[in-house]
Write a structure and sequence with these properties.
heterodimer; A: 112 residues; mainly beta; B: 116 residues; seven-stranded mixed sheet; four-stranded antiparallel sheet; 11 strands
């Protein structure tokens, strides 16, 4: 059974720092991995999608990498800002079941 | 505008009173799914559908039903709601890739359900 883990569960950093969020999964049979952002009480905003054949994707200050063989993905946020404060979720789309499995998320606080 | 819509956005009901939460997408996506989000448990998939008339159980299907009679709609039915189904529910859809697999998941705004 696919399991997705995100470490750390919470992170507090001063504004301007570069930071890395981690996501690991147990089964490498995936179609893709997607990173989302969720603000308190709100819906999910898609940040980056990495297909299983890709190694990384970039959007603005965000860069996500995927190492399927080791079951790991990282989300790199450059020059963090208070507006980046939110919960970040990763989800893997499993290719042998068609299910989307989420990690528990990392709650990020960026202090001014 | 390309979007996933859910109705209602908020619902308070009583135990045992059947209800339906609707989900509709206007992007011609093959894949649709339902999730519930609970504190400490994260997002868990309830049911998913890879195309019309094809549905499969997710990780927490007990107490829920779905149907996929049209490509754009994927309603979630609670035949006899119970308090443990109080949760935040999300619907999502995605397009099948040209080489198989699936593309980006688009999520609806969520439905907050309270069962008394």
């Amino acid at each position: 059974k696919q399991e997705v883990t995100q470490i750390p569960a919470a992170l507090s950093v001063p504004e301007g720092e570069n930071l890395v969020l981690n996501c690991s999964f147990t089964d490498s049979a995936i179609y893709n991995l997607q990173w989302f952002r969720q603000d308190p009480g709100k819906g999910l905003t898609s940040l980056l999608l990495i297909q299983s054949s890709q190694r990384e994707q970039t959007s603005g200050r965000l860069n996500a990498s995927l190492d399927k063989s080791s079951g790991r993905s990282t989300l790199y946020i450059a020059a963090s800002q208070p507006g980046d404060s939110a919960t970040y979720l990763c989800a893997v789309f499993t290719s042998n079941t068609g299910k989307l499995i989420f990690g528990q998320g990392t709650t990020l606080q960026v202090k001014p | 505008e390309a979007q996933v819509t859910q109705n209602p956005r908020y619902l308070i009901t009583v135990t045992g009173k059947k209800l339906t939460v609707t989900c509709s997408q206007n992007m011609n996506h093959e894949y649709m799914s339902w999730y519930r989000q609970d504190p400490g448990l994260g997002l868990r998939q309830i049911y998913y559908s890879m195309n019309v008339e094809v549905t499969d159980k997710g990780d927490v299907p007990e107490g829920y039903k779905v149907s996929r009679k049209e490509k754009r709609n994927f309603p979630l039915i609670l035949e006899s709601p119970s308090p443990n189904q109080t949760s935040l529910y999300f619907c999502a859809s995605s397009l099948r890739g040209r080489r198989g697999g699936y593309n980006e998941q688009f999520f609806g705004p969520g439905t907050r359900l309270t069962v008394l």
